[in-house]
């Protein structure tokens, strides 16, 4: 199709909308017409098939803000008789003034994706969202989705979520988008991952905060730590382990491709809110026996440095 044929078309009239129509109004009108004129609903009706192609062409331009602005400028100039299709390598003077010496063929090549001619178009890409659990993001899962179409029906879509995906990741399903003359577009699924009660992740590493008692941190202990696989691993807390220390368990993180991360265990010493009886007496004895140790010896000096 020549550029001249394109800018002579009134896409607003094709869709039956005003030139001031907002994006949501354009979308609503197109969907209503698409349901009425879609070839699947009107098999053998060539007139309605041509109308369907026409509204699809109009919607492709008017639903894109940049394309719509370029079309409006070109259409306005055409209606004023300001430029003609190029003949003999010459362009109309008004077109030069408005577009800086550009060729109208170039303008419509940008609008319709070809050098003055437009072949069959693929269908539009579609996007939807899905929420999965933290565990599903680690080990992968299968999604069963039902998507509404312009005809009010539903497509049943099955999508495989690979292991190790992050929150906000997108999955692309080729050929599962809207239908088009040159084949359907693609479907993109944006994933939202629910937070876990105790685990977080950073890259391929899993992180967990391990509560330990004061005596376990002071005397040392072997403590079982749950993993995402369902089994436990034992970590050794060395005597005198400080609050906030992180221990690494190799190979118990997230497997993504050929790489496997680690499990990072951060110690969180729990201080009892109340101590009574023999435990209180023992702590008083402990305080007396360690009174010579000043844990804040350098504290004041460092504050003044």
Characterization of the model:
The protein has helices at 3-7, 11-15, 23-37, 46-62, 65-79, 93-99, 104-112, 134-139, 214-219, 277-289, 299-304; strands at 126-132, 141-148, 154-161, 170-173, 187-193, 199-202, 205-213, 221-226, 232-237, 246-249, 255-256, 259-260, 263-270. The strands form five sheets. It has a four-stranded mixed sheet with strand order 6-7-13-10. The chain has a three-stranded mixed sheet with strand order 1-5-4. The protein starts with a helix and ends with a helix. It has eleven helices and 13 strands. Helix 5 (65-79) packs antiparallel against helix 7. It folds into three domains: 3-112, Helix Hairpins (Orthogonal Bundle), CATH 1.10.287.110; 126-193, Urease metallochaperone UreE, N-terminal domain (HSP40/DNAj peptide-binding domain); 199-289, HSP40/DNAj peptide-binding domain, CATH 2.60.260.20. The chain is elongated, with a radius of gyration of 34 Å. By secondary structure, the protein is of the alpha+beta class.
- Kindly report the CATH topology of the largest domain: Helix Hairpins
Number of domains: 3
Mean pLDDT: 82
The CATH class of the largest domain, by name, is Mainly Alpha
- The stretches of 5 or more residues where confidence is low (pLDDT under 50) are 82-109, 112-117
The overall strand count is 13
Return the string of H and E elements.
Answer: HHHHHHHEHEEEEEEHEEEEEEHH
Relevant CATH superfamily of the largest domain: DnaJ domain
Strand content: 15-25%
Question: Taking strands numbered 1, 2, ... along the chain, how are they ordered across the largest sheet?
Answer: 6-7-13-10
Cα radius of gyration in angstroms: 34 Å
* Annotation field: number of helices: 11
Please report the distance between the alpha carbons of the first and last residues: 78 Å
- Describe the biggest sheet? 4 strands, mixed
DSSP helix fraction: 25-40%
Q: Structural class of the secondary elements?
A: alpha+beta
């Amino acid at each position: 199709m020549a550029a001249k044929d394109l800018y002579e078309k009134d896409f607003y009239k094709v869709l039956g909308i005003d030139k001031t129509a907002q994006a949501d109004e354009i979308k609503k009108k197109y969907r209503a017409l698409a349901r009425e004129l879609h070839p699947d609903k009107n098999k053998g009706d060539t007139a309605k098939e041509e109308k369907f192609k026409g509204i699809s062409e109009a919607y492709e331009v008017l639903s894109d803000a940049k394309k719509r602005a370029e079309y409006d400028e070109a259409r306005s100039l055409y209606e004023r008789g300001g430029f003609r299709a190029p003949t003999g390598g010459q362009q109309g003077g008004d077109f030069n003034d408005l577009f800086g010496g550009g060729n109208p063929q170039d303008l419509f090549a940008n609008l319709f994706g070809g050098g003055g001619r437009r072949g069959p178009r693929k269908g539009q890409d579609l996007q939807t969202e899905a929420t999965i659990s933290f565990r599903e993001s680690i080990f992968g899962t299968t999604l069963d989705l039902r998507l509404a179409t312009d005809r009010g029906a539903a497509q049943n879509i099955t999508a495989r979520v690979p292991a190790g995906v992050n929150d906000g990741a997108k999955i692309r399903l080729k050929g599962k988008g809207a239908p088009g003359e040159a084949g359907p577009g693609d479907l993109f699924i944006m994933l939202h991952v629910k937070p876990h009660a105790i685990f977080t992740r950073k890259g391929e590493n899993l992180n967990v905060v391990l509560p330990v008692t004061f005596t376990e941190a002071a005397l040392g202990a072997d403590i079982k730590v749950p993993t995402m696989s369902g089994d436990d691993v034992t970590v050794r807390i060395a005597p005198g382990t400080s609050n906030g220390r992180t221990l690494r368990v190799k190979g118990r993180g997230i497997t993504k491709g050929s790489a496997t991360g680690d499990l990072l265990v951060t110690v969180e010493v729990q201080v009892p809110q109340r101590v009574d009886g023999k435990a209180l007496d023992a702590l008083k004895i402990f305080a007396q026996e360690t009174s010579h140790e000043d844990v804040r010896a350098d504290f004041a000096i460092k504050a003044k440095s």
